[in-house]
Amino acid sequence: MENLRRAVNEIAYSRNPRKLSPLPRSLIPLLSIASSLYKLALSLRYSLYRHRFFPIHRLPVAVVSVGNLSWGGNGKTPMVEFIARCLSHFGISPLILSRGYAGGDEVNMLHRHLLGTPTKFGVGANRAAVASQLIQRYGYVDTRESSWYRKQHLGHDLNVSLDSENIGAVVLDDAMQHWSLWRDLDIVMVNALTLWGNLQLLPLGPLREPLTALKRADVVVIHHADLVSEHIVKEIESTIRGIKESIPLFLTKMNPTYLFGVGNINAKIPLTALHKATILCVSAVGSAESFVKKIEKMGALYVDRVDFSDHHAFHVKDIELIRAKLEELEGKFGSKPIVVITEKDYDRDPEILKQLYPFKTFVLCSTLRVMAYKGSTEDSFKNFLKDHLKLKLPVEN
């Protein structure tokens, strides 16, 4: 199965199909048919929602959708965390809704990162039903405009203060194609490193929707913008503005902050621990390239990599493969290499990674930051969020 996923990924991001290896090349006719069927089903489904044959549920609070047009690695989960922190700072208790895909590694990571904030979590494919249940449990407060100072909970209207536990906004993780919920703000994430691949729809290409779907976006965020040239950023901007000229545009990056060891999550290890070391990057994420590029900038002696498909659950045979690579590197450089993984990989299954002992396994922790670009800054993104949602912020007691 992993070999098949690699082959499909190779097709999706190939610039020249003639240079594909035999297995991917043999899959193209079948994937082309499947892609055509997917396009038909997508168009029909969208039409049914647009003409209200399928219901679109409105929640009683502001809703922010964070999504993308292509599979994996676009920075959706870090952006969801960033928005949840912004809302918490505004005095609003956010509810994050996730489908909990592939074991919920992203939700587990968000839980860890947002401890100490009033953020609540709902997991399930039917996010409208999950939201309704949690709103009924916790109550809600409409934070938009003059509604801020009143809340509804079990039929009672009460004064609202900054420490209110009532849900004040909903953040939808990976929801651009989740049309059953009305949203007040649609954020679309774009991976500057991989972009839209061969521009084909799934499964022949990486696109969940055609690029024209950007017309539905309220804002586009170019993620990993620090890992590409200014020329490429301008080309991406030109493509986006060719579809929707006046759309607000922001750039983001992941700032590495510290490491922690598998088995000792509370001990923060400085990034300098990777200086002049032999590193093996192991990842099962949507954008392994961005992860490896960050490690390469940390002054390591040598960086190698073992990549798996996004959300891949590690098994014993994977650990054996990783150990074999580590032993090869140890023989080549004469010292034990260090394994570095992403937080998503850690949260998927922390226990199995302990089997790499006596090799050290570190987890890289990073934070999303908004880059300055053509007058756009982190503060202007926060102001855009507040203004677009028409939030009326409370006055602290």
UniProtKB/TrEMBL annotation:
InterPro entries: LpxK. Keywords: ATP-binding, Kinase, Lipid A biosynthesis, Lipid biosynthesis, Lipid metabolism, Nucleotide-binding, Transferase. Pathway: Glycolipid biosynthesis; lipid IV(A) biosynthesis; lipid IV(A) from (3R)-3-hydroxytetradecanoyl-[acyl-carrier-protein] and UDP-N-acetyl-alpha-D-glucosamine: step 6/6. Its EC number is 2.7.1.130. The keyword Transmembrane does not apply. The keyword Kinase applies. This is tetraacyldisaccharide 4'-kinase.
